[in-house]
Amino acid sequence: MSAAKENNNGFNDASNLIVLNLWRGEAGKADINCDLGEGAGNDDDIMPYITSANIACGYHAGDSETMWRTVESAVRHKVAIGAHPSFFDRKNFGRSEMNLDPGEIYDLVTQQLLVLTEIASSLDTKLQHVKPHGALYNMSAKDPALANTIARAVKDFDSNLILFGLSGSFSISESKAIGLKTASEVFADRTYQDDGSLTPRSQPDALIEDTGKMLTQVMQLIKEGTVTTLTGKIIPIVADTICIHGDGKQAVAFAKAIHNAIK
User: Domain residue spans in the chain?
Assistant: First the structure.
């Protein structure tokens, strides 16, 4: 992967795209990840079409039963298992920002990794990656101190884990700085701003809900290493893994469409 030059806001100016399957080592194969175990009720329908599952750990959604069921399904479908830690915010689905000190952030990430690891161990499997959820994900993408705290918590827990973070953001650069493995994440169902950040959900056109538009974006990411922003600007982006939100209206259709387009 070529080196990426970073802007002051933490998003980078990477000029090349390498899409790879991180665990199978097959260049040219896209890793497709999805946030699951969140109560959407479609996990079993999505699982056959993805390669990585980010499983809610109870802080924004899910409980021990849903975690066990989702891990079991991932094992059955040979899908890589990842933790999806969040702020403790079930009321707002983990999408409300919270100002916590570094020690509290470190502990909440560690606690959620412990819970999911215990369940995975009971099914004779293990975690392979970690992807923060919601506000924790978005805040760490723009805040190097927060990104560093999360990366340290993950690495201290298991140095073999891979951190999934917004492509070009501080989540990636801070993890790399301490020697933690990373996967630069791009989104099939979200639109982009000119600096490479995601359009906030509070703004118009933040979500992509049309299958054709979604596939156009995904294939542009894979084939050209670029994405077209809401203003029409084409910017370079690194894509190691493509995310579909499991709670999206078209989640199953999107997962199947991407799977069929790139298989």
Answer: 27-190+240-262
Q: How far apart are CA 93 and CA 111, in angstroms?
A: 18
Q: Which residue is it, tokens 């403790």?
A: 88
Residues in the chain: 263
In order along its 263 residues, the chain shows pLDDT tens digits of 333 333 434 333 332 223 334 443 344 467 999 999 999 889 999 999 999 999 999 999 999 999 999 999 999 999 999 999 999 999 998 899 999 999 999 999 999 999 999 999 999 999 999 999 999 999 999 999 999 999 999 999 999 999 999 999 999 999 999 999 999 999 999 999 999 999 998 899 999 999 999 999 999 999 999 999 999 999 999 999 999 988 888 999 999 999 999 87
Query: How distant, in Å, are the alpha carbons of 76, 95, 98, 111, 260 from that of 88?
Result: 29, 10, 9, 11, 36
Residue partners of 234: CB distance under 8 A and separation at least 6: 226, 227, 228
**Does domain 27-190+240-262 bear CATH number 3.40.50.150?**
no
How far CA 93 is from CA of 79, 96, 119, 224, 253, in Å, comes to: 24, 8, 22, 34, 23
Q: Which residues pair with 34 in a beta bridge?
A: 53, 244
* Cα–Cα distance measured from residue 231 to residue 38, given in angstroms and rounded to the nearest whole number: 32
Q: Which residue has the tokens 């294939």?
A: 219
19 backbone φψ class: left, alpha, beta (φ>0; ψ -120 to 50): beta
